[in-house]
Amino acid sequence: MAAIPLPKTNSGKAPTTPVVVTTDDKKELSQEELETVVGKLDVKEQDTKYYINQKNEKVLITKDHCKQNSTIYFKNCHDGEYTIDPAAKCCKVMIENCSGCTLTFNGKITTNMIELWRCNSVKVEVNTKVLTFQVDLSKQVHLEFNNKQNFQSVVWAATHDLTLGYKSSSDKIVTGLSHKKTEYPDLNDEIDQFIVRVIEGKLLEERIVRLSNGFPTTQREADEHDERERKNRERANEKLKKLVKSVEIKHNTGPKVGRNDNCTCGSGKKFKKCCGK
């Protein structure tokens, strides 16, 4: 009997009633088995629509197939075509261990996030806003966005032959581990990450580095931050110098006044009770 991790319910706790599905430990759960598990769980905040172990399927995903707050999960699908209708909405998209597939996203993704890993020869067409597209441990992945407004960043790691571009533009990037090793001889295949974004109207790919506090950034951004800090310090020093120059400093060159002498300001009081107080 396979061990099945149980997701949390609305109360934040696993269901009190155990869910039992008999299956072979050495095999992946089938579509029917997975739906049996999900159907028995009290998961109302975020449902998941699974497409698993499908071959040569051509599927149109409409608003009737998934709820607005659901995750769409493609796993172990091969040589298929999957299209999300413009009227359909989902929370997030996950693509795992798929090959030879074409996936087209037209409907709104509320988290603006797609994750893809362990895939081979996959084409993804994005016609909706996606702020973060994560690609890991994959080969021959082609990402095509319909315009720059729907694209913000693609973060990838441990991937060979990644192509990123637009339908109506020649601006594209062809990258991957074999491309970056010549540029970065110290590249770690397993942990190093790269990010592709639109900078000054053009696609720009940069290596992600970690600052001393662990914050992820790029060398360009780190250098720009250091330069801004340097200029801010210079401006602060200039302001301080101008402030010092504007203050009139008078030095008393006359005889020293005793504490019990009359104050030099002419108040008639003793110095210790007036200006020397």
Please provide a written account of the structure:
By secondary structure, the chain is an alpha/beta fold. Among the domains are: 1-36, no CATH class; 46-192, Pectate Lyase C-like, CATH 2.160.20. The protein is built from 3 helices and 18 strands.
Tags for this entry?
nine-stranded mixed β-sheet; alpha/beta; Pectate Lyase C-like; 277 residues; disordered N terminus; seven-stranded mixed β-sheet
Task: Summarize the topology.
Elements: H1 31-40, E1 48-52, E2 58-61, E3 71-75, E4 81-84, E5 89-90, E6 92-96, E7 102-105, E8 108-109, E9 113-117, E10 120-126, E11 130-136, E12 139-145, E13 151-157, E14 160-166, E15 169-175, H2 177-180, E16 193-199, E17 202-210, E18 216-218, H3 219-246
Parallel strand pairs: 1-3, 2-4, 3-6, 4-7, 5-8, 6-9, 7-10, 9-11, 10-12, 11-13, 12-14
Antiparallel strand pairs: 13-16, 14-15, 16-17, 17-18
